[in-house]
Design goal:
This is Amylo-alpha-1,6-glucosidase. Pfam families: GDE_N_bis, MGH1-like_GH. By secondary structure, this protein is α+β, with helices and mostly antiparallel strands. The chain is 29% helix and 25% strand. Strands 11-12-13-16-9-8-7-6-5-10-15-14 form a twelve-stranded antiparallel sheet, with no helix packed on it. Strands 1-2-3-4 form a four-stranded antiparallel sheet, with no helix packed on it. A three-stranded antiparallel sheet has the order 17-27-28, with helices on one face. Helix 2 packs across helix 3, helix 7 crosses helix 10 and helix 12 crosses helix 14. It is globular. It starts with a strand and ends with a helix. 51% of the residues are buried.
């Protein structure tokens, strides 16, 4: 698999190959991006006309990379007289310092060339291989190259400057240099992406994260955020490493919204460097016990952009919470509906769940009172626009069949919801986990109405509706002959009967009747769903099972974290611990950074988790996974003004100590220690 190296600062990022080069790509987002536009599509270095090859790459920091290079093929390295270092960083703009080192005892002359170019592609144009409709131009100046793109009022620009004299043409820069014996030569290049607003101003420059920030500033920002999180002490190095990596990745994924000027978490590099309703809220639930201050900006942003009209193109409905917000050309010209797009049936109940969970941890009643109207609107959506067939369930069917999403649950690829024989059901569809979210949202809405909105009648009504939904769901979704819940109901109310990881989310929501929970736990940890590295999205033996299919057999870390939370909620602590152990074992093979997904191959087939070829990394809800696993292991649960701590640390993990856990109780410490196998008694 081709090596790719990335650096990022918020939603400005650069993806290149293993030697630091960027070549035009129309199938994967390589290049320099900011707010969904590619500002560099070519960045290719040669020395005397020859490509360079990497001896080593230092990518320890998310915002800075250093490449150590030599010219020629690897067989020529033995007697290299010259080498190069490319030191680059990203922080509002992109900078690269080129250093040529002469290792010989004589003066040497070189022609150093850097090819430069931009197609100003929108991310969706790369994803769907669509041609540009505007006009690009390149203007060479004194040690500077200006690349521009215009399409009506849409105007993007990249300026590239060199700190030393260069010959500049429309395709790049050339330096004719002389380097003394055992000496070096260097130049510094600066690339500034510019997003022109309606009045021609640079929109990025007026946001804090659009300003130029050097590595030391970014490092200080990240370290300050990490220092606010609870301190972890443990005997399990995979857990310690994953925790450190997660906090740094979450810090790196913060970006400043153009629209509201608040810092939000981007969902994942490279495809999802923007606000996603579902991803952002599930990530917020994961980070809540560790960095609760990251959560309110997401809640307020989603409330501020809540649907208020019927708009078929955007799948917008009154009360609905958005799915995705984009800033690029295709959204601006309504070739994609993402400005914002509301094609998710689960984001609306998750909004209610997140706000209530946030108050339970922080005691921030002010925010709950402030958002009473949006929460009521969200709960109303569940019973009206969400219930397309009037059956008391939340269904989905896109209002926009041309560019809208077919599946509007978390498994949103086209083939993710299928019958056991592989057939696809018609629309509308009612997936099981969304009914669980709706149930939980009603219960939590009732709590907020009773405690903060002074509306006990509304609270009583929501509780009655939740109880009726739970009873109805356990009757209609249960498949008696298979002893698990259908992944969905089809338009005729029949079971979509494949066995999936979705049933783990049902445990998290609490909608499962107690007598059935044990059978669900058995399925989740059984050989068809559990790979040994985690729970697969789709069980082996199902018609569409594919261990490297996006939602039809891969293992998703975030999915497993919420399944572990659900198992723990129903008392299956050891089963939850097995999932925690598997995820942490897997993290070792990814340098502590869990990817978006990895293959669902049986663990006995391989000594390591197999990479999924296009997985996002870092990804926000994967970065949040070790945090939620820690919550599960330590049994952390807010109760009134206190934090319940009930640890059950998996065997062999040793001591797990989390200090200064923030919340309405101030800051408290949690300590757990795994028992020996003898303490557990015989295992069967």
């Amino acid at each position: 698999m081709q090596q790719r190296v990335s650096i990022l600062d918020g939603n400005t990022f650069l993806v290149c190959d293993g030697r630091g080069d960027v070549e035009p790509s129309f199938d994967f987002p390589t290049g320099l991006f900011s707010f969904d536009t590619r500002f560099l599509s070519t960045w290719l270095l040669t020395l005397d006309g020859e490509r360079l090859h990497a001896l080593s790459v230092d990518d320890a920091h998310s915002y800075q990379t250093r490449f150590f290079l030599v010219p020629g093929e690897p067989t020529h390295y033995l007697d290299a007289k010259v080498s190069m270092i490319r030191t680059r960083s990203i922080g509002g703009n992109f900078t690269e310092e080129l250093t040529v080192l002469n290792h010989s005892g004589r003066e040497m002359h070189f022609d150093l060339r850097l090819e430069m170019g931009s197609d100003f592609a929108d991310l969706f144009e790369i994803k769907h291989q669509r041609p540009k409709k505007g006009r690009t131009s390149a203007v060479a100046g004194d040690n500077a190259l200006r690349l521009t793109y215009r399409r009506e009022a849409f105007h993007r620009e990249a300026t590239i400057t060199s700190s030393t004299d260069a010959h500049v043409d429309q395709a790049g820069m050339t330096w004719s240099i002389t380097v003394a014996p055992h000496s070096e030569w260097n130049t510094r290049l600066t690339v500034t992406p510019i997003i022109h607003g309606a009045r021609g101003e640079d929109v990025r420059a007026i946001t804090a994260l659009g300003a130029v920030r050097g590595p030391s500033v970014i490092r200080a920002e990240q370290e300050e955020l990490v220092s606010r999180a609870p301190q972890l002490g443990c005997d399990c190095e995979p857990l310690a490493g994953a925790y450190r990596q997660s906090l740094h990745d979450l810090a790196a994924l913060r970006y400043e919204s153009i629209t509201l000027g608040v810092r939000l978490l981007a969902a994942g590099l490279p495809w999802f460097m923007t606000l996603f309703g579902r991803d952002s809220m599930l990530t917020s639930l994961q980070v809540l016990p560790f960095l609760p201050e990251l959560v309110p900006p997401t809640i307020l942003m989603l409330a501020g952009l809540q649907g208020h009209r019927l708009d078929d193109f955007r799948d917008e409905e009154p009360g609905k919470i958005l799915h995705e917000l984009r800033y690029g050309e295709t959204a601006g010209f309504e070739e994609q509906p993402h400005s914002p797009y509301y094609g998710a049936a689960d984001s609306t109940p998750l909004f209610v769940i997140l706000l209530d969970e946030y108050e339970r941890w922080t005691g921030d009643a002010t925010l709950v009172k402030q958002l009473e109207t949006p929460v009521r609107a969200a709960l109303h959506w569940i019973d009206t626009y969400g219930d397309l067939l009037g059956t008391g369930y939340v269904w989905y069917r896109s209002r926009n069949p041309e560019t809208g999403l077919e599946n509007q649950c978390w498994k949103d690829s086209w083939d993710a919801i299928s019958y056991a024989d592989g057939r696809l059901p018609g629309f509308p569809r009612a997936t099981c986990e969304i009914q669980g979210y709706a149930y939980d949202a009603k219960r939590r809405g009732a709590r907020m109405a009773r405690l903060f909105w002074n509306d006990p009648e509304y609270a009583d009504r929501l509780e009655r509706e939740a109880a009726a939904l739970k009873e109805r769901f356990n009757r209609d979704f249960w498949i008696p002959e298979k002893e698990y819940f259908a992944v969905a109901l089809d338009p005729d109310g029949r079971h979509v009967d494949s066995l999936t990881s979705n049933i783990g989310h049902l445990l998290w929501s609490g909608i499962v009747d107690e007598p059935r929970a044990a059978r669900i736990a058995e399925h989740l940890l059984g050989p068809r769903l559990y790979s040994g590295w985690g729970v697969r999205t789709l069980a082996t033996g199902e018609g569409r099972y594919n261990p490297i299919g996006y939602h039809v057999g891969t293992v998703w870390p975030f999915d497993n974290a919420f399944i572990a939370w659900g198992l723990s909620r129903y008392g299956f602590r050891e089963e939850a611990g097995r999932i925690c152990e598997a995820m942490l074992d897997a993290s070792r093979f990814f340098g502590g950074r869990l990817p978006e997904a990895f293959a669902g191959y049986e663990r006995t087939l391989t000594d390591y988790p197999v990479q999924y070829p296009t997985a996002c990394s870092p990804q926000a809800w994967s970065a949040g996974t070790p945090l939620l696993l820690l919550r599960v292991i330590l049994g952390l649960e807010p109760q009134g003004e206190h934090l319940i701590i009930d640890p059950l640390v998996p065997e062999g993990m040793g001591r797990v100590e989390l200090l200064d856990i923030p919340g309405r109780w101030g800051r408290v410490d949690a300590l757990g220690r795994s028992r020996t196998p003898r303490e557990h008694g015989p295992r069967h």
